[in-house]
Amino acid sequence: MSKIRIAICGYGNLGRGVESEITKTGDMDLVAVFTRRNPEDLKINSNTPVVNMADLEAWKDKIDVMIMCGGSATDLPKQVPEVAKLYNTVDSFDTHAKIPEHFETVNKSAEENKKTSIISGGWDPGMFSLMRLYASSILTSGKTYTFWGKGVSQGHSDAIRRIDGVKNAIQYTIPIDEAVESVRRGENPSLSTGEKHLRECFVVAEDGADKDRIENEIKTMPNYFSDYKTIVHFISEEELKRDHNKMPHGGFVIHSGETGNGNKQIIEYSLKLDSNPEFTASVLIALARANYRMNKMGLYGAKTIFDVAPAMLSEKTPEALRKELL
Amino acid sequence: MSKIRIAICGYGNLGRGVESEITKTGDMDLVAVFTRRNPEDLKINSNTPVVNMADLEAWKDKIDVMIMCGGSATDLPKQVPEVAKLYNTVDSFDTHAKIPEHFETVNKSAEENKKTSIISGGWDPGMFSLMRLYASSILTSGKTYTFWGKGVSQGHSDAIRRIDGVKNAIQYTIPIDEAVESVRRGENPSLSTGEKHLRECFVVAEDGADKDRIENEIKTMPNYFSDYKTIVHFISEEELKRDHNKMPHGGFVIHSGETGNGNKQIIEYSLKLDSNPEFTASVLIALARANYRMNKMGLYGAKTIFDVAPAMLSEKTPEALRKELL
Fold it and tell me: What pLDDT is recorded for position B246?
């Protein structure tokens, strides 16, 4: 049986994750890495051909699914609707509020060209979304809580780096234990965002910078920090590089419902990830397998993980799945 | 829009659970309860018509999905292939080793009659199976562990009750904390069944019975107890009725994998259920909704939860799901 031919579009942390994790599958080959940069300037970790995005069309018959690895802010909203005219795509678009709009534009391109595009894969949106859907479909009267962390928030880290006198910084989002425990006990608390998470910041200040002012600017920053308990540590550049060079993340989806005469039923899903981009990449790879199969079945247009029958994600046959995993 | 017409076949704990939980949906009506008993002798908790199973065929045009609530040992293997000739069915067949055989016989009946039969729904098989599938499809190189409990095992309770001098008994399966914690830390231990679970038994002895002999017979019983750490408590019938009258259950599916250069990735799904049958019933109800939709789409034959696109389970529209849950 011939393998599914995968290409990566965009070579950042996520692209590198796909490149590394695809080697663990038995049914897929990585055939190309597309980049906006000059291909000769891009050093990658494998022997895969590197191609400029201008030559996208030339690979039309050599690629089954393109895994889009650009950013959600500007890359994906532009790239996916274009690429979906030529290729089946999988992306990790994660701007929750703009998902319906992204779905519509991608759907138009894909449907018109008989392509399949699975949007917003990963873990949130992605696996966490699935857990919210399953839990609320089963225990309809319950309440779902999502906690993120402990993990690095790129957006919050960037916001600190923009403050005058800050050389470098990293921010961890941390779920507040008491809130998690109350939800786990089925107490269905009402929790503001600031009651669910705290924010811990590790900041490298410029020489001679006013640390009190920096700490105050962080803690009072609207939207990002002012509504949260925020802890600020000043550390050296060496400490930052040594102790904070990983991209861990994770979190919990907890659904607390009731059945019958006051019987509590608690469903919890949690992820503890040493590498956020490598886990996201692993989800996208499984979705690429489903995408390939769904396209063969004539399921064209934009799809989400909600539309993917779970068996489609696995290398195993339906018979093996029933025998070994059911 | 007309509601999905549901019937229950078999009125035990599970049937009562379906009867109670279906009232929480907005898109389903319970239209009949089928029983092997004399309908006039069966007192049920709602005003639903009670019908003898001999009259199954007479309801052919009045029922969309039949939820099969009999036992896995003898009821379901016989009943489902018969009922699937006339109705779409959902069942909770849970004898893992016999699932492939059950699938084949049900598939034949359903396919020939353009019916859809979702087999082996619930939580294990069911939601736990799904979690094993998702996790192992994403982190292919990882290892999946399933722990059950704390919860009542009907089979083990029955085995104790068959011992001479035992009046009544209940057995709890309990995951061993150290084993769970080792798996959570990503240590991928090799664990025998006895290293994963212990068994706690609450036994009511007959007056004058030899408790030492009973305890010894329990602890040395092959398959059921001899491979486990087993704790036996003798209590009074009153204590049993007062303290052990619920049917709690639950457990964990933990998948521990690695990506990249030794990055640990841990996925955990857990259920903490006050009522095992009511939770199982809630899963079957969501599957009945999916069943109805899949049958309308022409997806005939036997299916499992692996074949059900998650969006099919929800009352919400695909648009609402993308906007609210993705």
Answer: 86
Contact assessment for residue A25 and residue A313, using Cβ atoms and an 8 Å cutoff: no
pTM of the model as a whole: 0.95
Is there a contact between B100 and A319 if contact means CB atoms under 8 Å apart?
yes
Searching chain A, which residue's CA lies closest to the CA of residue B325? Answer: A129
Q: Which residue's entry shows tokens 């993308």? A: B322
- Helix, strand and coil content of chain A, in percent to the nearest 5, comes to 40, 25, 35
pLDDT in tens, A10-50: 999 999 999 999 999 999 999 999 999 999 999 999 999 99
Q: Which stretches within B140-230 are classed as H helix? A: 154-161, 177-184, 193-196, 211-219
Of B20, B136, B260, the CB nearest to A259: B20
Q: In the predicted model, what is the mean pLDDT of chain A?
A: 96
- Count the Cβ atoms, other than its own, within 10 Å of residue A197: 22
**A20, A140, A308 ranked by CB distance to B24: nearest:** A140
Q: Do B326 and A308 touch (CB under 8 A)?
A: no
Q: Which residue of B has its CA nearest to A20?
A: B260
Amino acid identity of residue B65, one-letter, is V
Which letter does DSSP use for residue A247 in this model? Answer: B
* Per-residue pLDDT reduced to its tens digit, A172-194: 999 999 999 999 999 999 998 89
Identity of the amino acid at B233: H
CA dist B204 and B239 (Å) reads 9
* Long-range CB contacts for residues B99-103, cutoff 8 Å, separation at least 24: B99/A322, B99/A323, B99/A326, B99/B125, B100/A319, B100/A322, B100/A323, B102/B76, B102/B77, B103/A322, B103/B302, B103/B304
Closest residue by Cα to residue B254 from B96, B101, B98, B147:
B147
Q: What is the dihedral of CA A132, A273, B258, A253, to 10 degrees?
A: -20
- Residue A11 makes CB contacts below 8 A (sequence gap 6+) with A19, A33, A35, A42, A44, A50, A69
State whether A265 and B286 contact (CB < 8 Å).
no
Taking only the tens place, the pLDDT of each residue in B78-116 is 999 999 999 999 999 999 899 999 999 999 999 999 999
